[in-house]
Design goal:
The protein is of the alpha/beta class. Helices cover 30% and strands 27% of the residues. Helix 2 packs across helix 3 (107-115).
């Protein structure tokens, strides 16, 4: 069963999302956090919602920006608004479910660890991105429109606000020092891959509940044949570990 839900963020913007629930009552929910230029219905989230429903998890996927009425526009978004909106999503569901699990893809993974929600039972980071300042380092500035252009197969305009905000973010190892929630990185073997383990876990070698796996043959969006299924299974096995824990 799916239900389309919208509600307000802290600054009055409307967040649009989709709640997917199994037929039987389920006390646990997975919250999906998309990456740069992404949206709630990318195949890994659309299919992921159905995978978790079959395994008796509810899920909620939403947009950090969209063209819906009252929604935040991408030009007005940055890491701070991403975190704000994730807080609003968490607040919306924290009293409806016994446990909340978070999945973040690419920069969406960083939103989760930077927000570090205390309500999280466990986190899964799907091919998490590099440092935000590195992501925007190679952008071309277009002075005539006071924006940057990012070329990822197609071209995206990135606002000065977002670029400067990303550059100012604390480094990932510093952020990860504060994360006590169990974290599993599921890296794409053909993308950032094993480098993510060193960046995200280097300062956490002594911490428990840290796991890493690289999906062989996967690209950043897990489009290659069979890699999406492996991504979902690795995530499910990780979350299942914490269903019966206090």
């Amino acid at each position: 069963m799916e239900e389309y839900i919208n509600f307000k963020s802290e600054d009055g913007k409307t967040i649009y999302g989709t709640l997917t629930k199994p037929v039987s009552s389920q006390p646990h929910v997975v919250i999906f956090s998309h990456g740069f230029s992404g949206h709630q219905n990318e195949h890994i989230f659309f299919n992921g919602a159905r995978f978790f429903m079959k395994h008796n998890f509810s899920s909620f996927r939403f947009d950090y920006y969209s063209d819906n009425d009252g929604a935040r526009e991408m030009k007005d978004a940055d890491m701070d608004t991403h975190r704000m909106d994730l807080r609003a999503v968490t607040a919306r569901f924290k009293n409806d479910f016994k446990k909340i699990f978070f999945v973040g893809h690419s920069i969406g993974a960083q939103v989760i660890v930077r927000e570090n929600p205390k309500e999280a039972a466990a986190l899964a980071l799907w091919d998490p991105s590099r440092e935000p300042k590195d992501l925007v380092a190679d952008l071309e500035y277009l002075p005539d429109i006071s924006s940057y252009v990012m070329r990822w197969n197609t071209e995206f305009l990135v606002s000065e606000r977002m670029a400067e905000n990303y550059k100012a973010q604390p480094p990932i190892p510093e952020v990860m020092e504060k994360v006590e929630t169990p974290v599993k990185i599921i890296a794409a073997g053909k993308a950032y891959g094993e480098k993510a383990e060193e960046l995200y876990f280097d300062s956490n070698l002594e911490k428990q509940n840290r796991e890493f796996v690289s999906v062989e043959g996967a690209n950043h969006t897990f489009d290659a044949w069979g890699t999406e299924e492996k991504l979902f299974e690795e995530t499910y096995v990780w979350f299942k570990k914490f269903l019966d824990s206090q």
